[in-house]
Amino acid sequence: MQTIAVVDFETTGLAPGGGGRATEIAVVLVRGGAIVDRYASLMQSGAWVPPFITQLTGISNEMLAEAPPSRQVMQEVAAFTAGCPLVAHNASFDQGFWRAEWELADLTPDPAHEFACTVLLSRRLWPEAQRHNLGSMAEFLGLEWEGRAHRALADAAITAELLLRIQREVERRFAMDLGHAEVDHGLLAHLQRVNVRELRRGLKSYLATVSVP
């Protein structure tokens, strides 16, 4: 049974290329239709946190002064996520920081670490939702937050709940087509690129390329 790692970063800016660094990371593991484990840590890179970021996230320079080094945190994350495909909400953002922090920690790339995006998937499954940001989708689907939004663990946990809802929705809509197939990361990564009107065809084309027990 596949384990998927749901990732969320809090950062000092919008992109690592502009000098932005991660200030916090959380990873929530999902397996068999449930959350099975969690990891979260602040991370000290030496980067300065602007006041508007502190206001948004609650993460201050004083908090980071006591945090473990980014290199140590990413080494722990690497062990925690070994062999797991990844999911994030607005994955292009988290993927950029994932790659940047991974490289700065001198870690060997893990071939399993491919991202799927719950923004793209929610747009395919619920195009009627007015907005597809994390807060709007949580409200639309009635998902319960566990903590403060814009903190990594709360955001990763609600994204994990959204992922579970997406998996159940795919199972519900396409039960006859799926048969015994699992709604795994590969299928989700395929569906996120399919036109909203072609989901069944996209699902069938993916299943035709994999062996189902």
TrEMBL record:
Keywords: Exonuclease, Hydrolase, Nuclease
Coiled-coil annotated spans: none
Annotated GO MF terms: exonuclease activity
Pfam families linked: RNase_T
Keyword Hydrolase among UniProt keywords: yes
Domain Exonuclease span(s) in chain numbering: 3-172
Alphabetized PANTHER family for the sequence: DNA POLYMERASE III SUBUNIT EPSILON (PTHR30231), EXODEOXYRIBONUCLEASE 10 (PTHR30231:SF37)
Protein name per Swiss-Prot or TrEMBL: 3'-5' exonuclease
Natural source organism: Roseateles paludis
